[in-house]
C-alpha cells in the first residue's frame, strides 16, 4: 500500500518517524524514507472479521524478506491459536517471486503447478 513520503519528529518519543522499519530487522538503509507499507492481516473464513497483525514501513522489499515475514506471521498466528488456511496477495513481480521462494510454482504444465507451500517449523 502506498503512503506519503514524509519524515516527522515525535517530541514525546524524541525520534523521527517515517523511515523504513522492519521491526528491528535491518533490511534497508536506516535513513531511507518509507513510501509503502506491507500489511499482514488475518481474515475470518466463517465470520466477518479482519484483524491486522503487523505492518512494515518500506521503500521496496525483496522476495526473500517478504517470504521470511510471511513465515514469521504464520508461525506467530499458530502460536496464538489461529489456523492459517491461505495467503492472499496481488500479482506484482515481487509477490510472485515471494510465493516461488516459499515453494510455489506457477509455470510449466498444469500438473507441474504447485499453488501451496509448507512451513517445516509448524508441520
Query: Percent helix among the residues?
Result: 10-25%
Instruction: Record the strand order, biggest sheet.
Output: 1-2
Helix/strand structural class? alpha+beta
Strand content: 15-25%
Domain Transposable element P transposase-like RNase H: 1-103
Protein name: THAP domain-containing protein 9
Furnish the topology, listing elements before pairings:
Elements: E1 8-10, E2 15-17, E3 36-43, E4 50-58, H1 63-79, H2 93-102
Antiparallel strand pairs: 1-2, 3-4
Helix pairs in contact: 1-2
What do you see in this structure?
The chain starts with 7 loop residues before the first strand and ends in a 21-residue tail after the last helix. The chain has a two-stranded antiparallel ribbon with strand order 1-2. A two-stranded antiparallel sheet has the order 3-4. The protein is built from two helices and four strands; from the N terminus they run ββββαα. It is an alpha+beta fold and 123 residues long. It has two domains: 1-61, no CATH class; 63-68 and 82-123, no CATH class. It has helices spanning 63-79, 93-102, and strands spanning 8-10, 15-17, 36-43, 50-58. The radius of gyration is 17 Å and the shape is globular. This is THAP domain-containing protein 9. It comes from Sipha flava (yellow sugarcane aphid).
